[in-house]
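Comment thread on ticket #2218

A.B. wrote:
> Attaching the input chain for the structure job we discussed in standup.
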Amino acid sequence: MASNTSLAFMDQYSTDLKLNLIYEPLDKSSLTVLKMQKVDILYGFSIEAAVIGESHYVTLLFNNIEIFSELLACIDLSAQHKNLEILACTESNNFISHVVSDMHYAIDINIVEANQKIIEAFSKTSKVLVNLSYKFENQEYEIEAKTEIKIVLIEENLLIETLHSYPNENKIVLSRSSLDLEAIYLKNYKEVS
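C.D. wrote:
> Ran it. Output below, let me know if you need it in another format.
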């Protein structure tokens, strides 16, 4: 359930981020959900996206059963999940590219110098299925502390773009991931429907 209270920015760092790829229902009990949206898509798929206190998650569901989650956050969920992969952002690794062929999923994560123009340009994206934005309380930095999620459906491909700003270190983390829903459906679920 999404919270109605505002959350202050915490001095976390872009290099604290971990990409948790979860191949089972996501345990949300330890997550602070600030904004959430769920949308039905096609082939029985739906998507649930949320800005959380630690960053974001996006969950793919088939017939309302969670089958895959991307969670990019300053947390490690290995204690709660057995069926997952974790990739870490590090100071020496400002770019991560990863493919999960069984899920027809790909992600690129890029850490860049903060710039208000990047934040403004990202915010102008139109024609989206999901459009979530959360601005953390932040009085002491020039760049606003915020997390944004944009999800677009282009034919049968789901495109997920996120922005996470870290004003304390003047960094922005941009992620772009994709899921080929038709391929996932044909490979795993056509016989189920």
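A.B. wrote:
> Thanks. Noting for the ticket: Residues 104 and 180 are 5 Å apart (CA to CA).
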